Amino acid sequence: MEVKVSWNGPSGMSFRAETGTGHMVAMDGAPEAGGHNLAPRPMEMLLVGTGGCTAFDVVLILQRGRENVLGCDVTLQAERAETDPKVFTKINFHFVISGRNLKPAAVERAVKLSHEKYCSASIMMAKTAEMTYSFEIVEAV
Question: Coiled-coil annotation: which residues (predicted)?
């Protein structure tokens, strides 16, 4: 896996990244750090990647278990250390899974498997952050 990150130049603290699969991502800093607030911060991107990684796992695990999953949202709320390096110290994942006749035990198992076995990103983040998880099931009509 490879990505290339390039500074957009001396007019601010914005960067562009190109992934090994050819996708472009913009990043920017806060105005007080010389950025223009035109794109996500790099640390936000870490949360985005972690949320995507675990959501992917949860949906796949539920589908493989023949659950009728129709939607998956995960909200990550994180706290960071106050001093450098400002690593994540707490991350809460709240999943909202929608579908038909979803079994709570199956959803709980999928979330647990993602965070304990499959999601490389959340397992890596757990090295510095206390991780908590919750979920709710919404019956689709």
Answer: none
**Yes or no: domain 42-139 corresponds to CATH 3.40.50.620:** no
Model confidence pLDDT, tens digit, residues 23-79: 999 999 999 999 999 999 999 999 999 999 999 999 999 999 999 999 999 999 999
Q: 82 φ, ψ to 5°? A: -80, -20
Residue 53 near residue 120 (C-beta atoms within 8 A): yes
**Coil/strand/helix, residue 67:** coil
Contacts of 99 (CB under 8 A, 6+ apart): 62, 67, 68, 69, 70, 71, 137, 139, 140
CATH 3.30.300.20, the chain: domain bounds = 42-139
Q: What is the pTM of this model?
A: 0.92
